[in-house]
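Project outcomes to date are best conveyed with an example. Our students and postdoctoral researchers have been running inverse folding experiments weekly, and each run begins with a structure described purely in tokens. The record below, which covers 188 residues, was selected by the lab manager from last quarter's runs and is presented without edits.
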């Protein structure tokens, strides 16, 4: 009954009595003679009381019905607040994706340059013929190719690291969306 009327309690107890009482004092005296009723009345755990005495009919005879309800309210439960994921996270994901696309474009162009340069080096090797000047030029070209290859590898590592970060950000965003949706569904 307490829950039905919106009384959220940590402790609840009641004393009920019926009979033809001469006075309210006689009702209380009767409860005080009963150990369980007395315990409810003297309890230091409860902070609130409701009491009523009514005349009614019970088993086809007029009688008085007395009730005491003792309670200690529970702390109010905070309303669940559903927080949507920040648009900042989604914005950051989009920025990182754009950075990765730019890196991928640079990597594609550099890879084409390297393939073209490797083919040119292979062709040039066949035409050096013990010519010291041609051999020096070829060695410079090979050194440049090797430096571009190292640059390509560093960029590829950076692109891979950024992709891992974006994947992690997307997973986090998806978890936040799922938590938000679950919260919203719990409200209904």
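After processing, the design step wrote out the following sequence:
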């Amino acid at each position: 009954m307490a829950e039905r009327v919106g009384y959220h309690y940590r402790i609840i107890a009641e004393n009920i009595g019926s009979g033809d009482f001469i006075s309210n004092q006689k009702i209380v005296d009767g409860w005080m003679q009963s150990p369980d009723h007395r315990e409810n009345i003297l309890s230091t755990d409860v902070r609130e009381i409701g009491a009523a005495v009514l005349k009614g009919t019970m088993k086809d005879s007029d009688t008085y019905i007395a009730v005491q309800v003792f309670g200690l309210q529970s702390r109010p439960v905070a309303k669940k607040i559903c927080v949507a994921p920040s648009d900042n996270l989604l914005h950051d994901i989009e920025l990182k994706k754009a950075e990765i696309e730019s890196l991928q474009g640079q990597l594609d162009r550099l890879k084409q340059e390297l393939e073209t340069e490797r083919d040119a080096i292979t062709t040039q090797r066949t035409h050096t013929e013990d010519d010291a000047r041609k051999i020096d030029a070829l060695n410079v070209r090979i050194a440049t190719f090797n430096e571009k290859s190292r640059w390509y590898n560093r960029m590829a590592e950076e692109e891979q690291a950024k992709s891992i970060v974006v994947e992690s950000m997307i997973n986090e965003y998806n978890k936040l969306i799922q938590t938000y949706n679950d919260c919203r569904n719990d409200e209904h």
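The longest strand covers residues 61-73. The mean pLDDT is 90. The training component of this project remains on track.
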